[in-house]
Amino acid sequence: MKKQKPAFSIAHYLKKYKLPITMVVISTILITVLAVLTPIYTANAIEILTLPNANYWEAIKLFIFVLACNLAVHLLNHLNNAVYNIYSRRLGKQISMDLISRSFNITSQSYANHNSGDFAQRILSEPQAIINQLFSFIGILSNIISVTAIIVYVFVLNYIVGLCLITIVAIVSIIDMFRIKKTWPLRQKDREAYAKVHAIVYETIKSEKDVKTSNLENKLRSAVNLQMTEYQKTSNKKELTNLNWRLLLKIFRDLMIYATLILGIIFLEKSIITISAFMLIYSYQGRFVSLASCISQVGDIVSNISLSKKRMNELFEDFEYEEEKFGDISLENVKGDIKFENVTFNYKDYEFVKDKKQTVIDKKLKYQTPVLQDLSFHIKPSTTVAFVGKSGSGKSTILSLISKMLEVDDGKVLIDDVDIKDLDKQTLRSSISLLNQFPYIFNMSIKDNLKMAKEDATDEEIDKAIENSFLKEFVDSLPNGLDTIVGESGIKLSGGQKQRLAIARALLRKTSIIIFDESTSSLDNLAQEHIKKCIDNLKGKSTIVIVAHRLSTIKNVDNIFFLENGKIVDEGTFDRLCKKNKEFERLFEIENLTNDLEEN
Fold first, then answer.
1. Same-domain check for residues 440 and 292
2. Segment 194-212, tens digit of pLDDT
C-alpha cells in the first residue's frame, strides 16, 4: 500500500526562529575561528621559546592572546547555551502541540492498535530529542571545522604527517558508517520496547487502587518485569553492537595516532619538522582523534534525528495511524433524529508488517469479530431510548457508531437524514455528548472542569448545571466550593460524583444528542438514583441514548431496543417488554434478586 506523504517538517519550525538561530550560527563561527587560532598561536609561542635568542615577551603576548581567545570561546558557548535553553523549549512545545492536535484527528481504532506509551513518546520525547541533537550537531560541526583547519595547518608544515592524519579520519569514518547501518534497526526496536515499558508503568500507576484491592501486585509486577526484560534485551543488543564497533574504532585510531607520533619523532630527529610542529601534533593528538569521533557522532545524530522524525512522521501517515474523515455538510440546528440503515460492523485486528529498518510497509488483517449485521432502527428527536442486552450484544458499538468513534463497514448512520460521513466535524462534535462508565475528570477545579465544556460559561449557567446534575449539595459542602481541586482523574470524587460532574459538563454544552454508555453500572443504589434523576431532567430537551447495565434506570424511557448477537430482537416500553419478552423479564428479575442480596 502507498503511504500518505508525511506532513511534518523540521525546517517549517526552524524558520520561525531565524534570529536566535542566526545568533547561534554567528557565535559558532567565531568559536570555530578562535578554536583554529588557539593551537596555531600556541605553536608559534612554543616556536619562539625554542629559538636561540628567545623573545620571551613576544611569547607572553601570544599566550595572553590565546587566553583571550579561550575566554571568548567560554562566553560565546555560554551565549549559545542560554539561547538554546530559552528557545529549545519553545520549539519543543510548538512541535508537541502540533503532534497533540494531530493525535486528536486519529481514529479510535488506531488508538486501539497502539499503546499509550508509544503515543506519549512520539509526542513528547521525539521532538525534544531532535532539538537536542540539532544543537549538538552545531557544536560538533564547529569542532570538525576547527580540527580540520588544524590538520590543514599540519599538512602545510609536513604533508606526510598531514596525509597520515587525513587517512586516519577517513578510514575511521568509513568504519563508523557500517556501525550506524548495523545499529539502525536495533535503535528502532529499542525505542518501541521503551514505549511499551512506558505504557505499562503508566497503566500500573493509573490502576493503583484496582491493583491493591484485587491483590494483583505480583501479577502486575511480573508483567512489568517481562516488558522491562524485553527492553533490556533490545537495549543490551543495541549497546553491545555499538561497543563492539567502537572498540574496533578505538584500537585502530590509537594504532594510527601513535604511528603518526613515531613518524613525527623520526622527522624531528631528521630535522624535517620543527619542535613546535611536533608539540602541536603531540598536544592535539586528542583533538585529531576527536575529529574521527565527531564525524561518527554526526552519523549518530543524523541517524537519531531520522529515527525521531520518522516516528513523528508516522503519526501523519494515513496508513498505520488512520485519520478521521469528515464531510462538508454543516447543519445549524441539529434536531437529533438518528437512523441506522442496514449497518454492518466488525472489530478488526491488524498486523503491521515491517522491513529490516522497522518501517511499516504493509497492513494485514489478522482477524475480525462480527458485531452488527444488517442492523436498522430509528430514534426520533428529543426522545429517550435505551439499548439492553447481554454483554457482547453490540450495545456500546452502536453508541460508538452514532458518535463516529467507529466507522461502519456497510450501511448508513444518519443524523437528521444526513449520513454522518457527510457531516463536517464541527456539526458532529458540537451535536453529541458522550458519557461513558468512567468519564475523564481533569486535575483542576470543579469550575475549570465545567469550563472545559464551555469556556465562556457564566456563573449562572454553571450554577444551573450543578443544580440540575444534583451536585449542588456536594459542592456547597466543600470548603472551597467550585474552586476545589479534584485530583488526577477526579480521584477525590466518588464514582457518582464523577458521573454527575460529567453530566453537568454535558448540560453546559447543550448538545442535541446525549449518549450514556453504562453510566450507572459501577455505582451504588443512591448514586444510581441521582444519575437517574439527572437523566429524567434531560428528557424532552435532547435525544438521549442509553446503554443500560441496570434495567431499573431505564423504566421511564420512551423506547427500549433489546439486542441479541448484534440484532434487535424486540423493542417497546419497559412495561411492554416485561410483559411480552420472557428474556427481558428474566434479566430484570435477576437484577432485583442481586439488589436484594446486596442490601441484605
1. no
2. 777 777 776 676 666 556 6
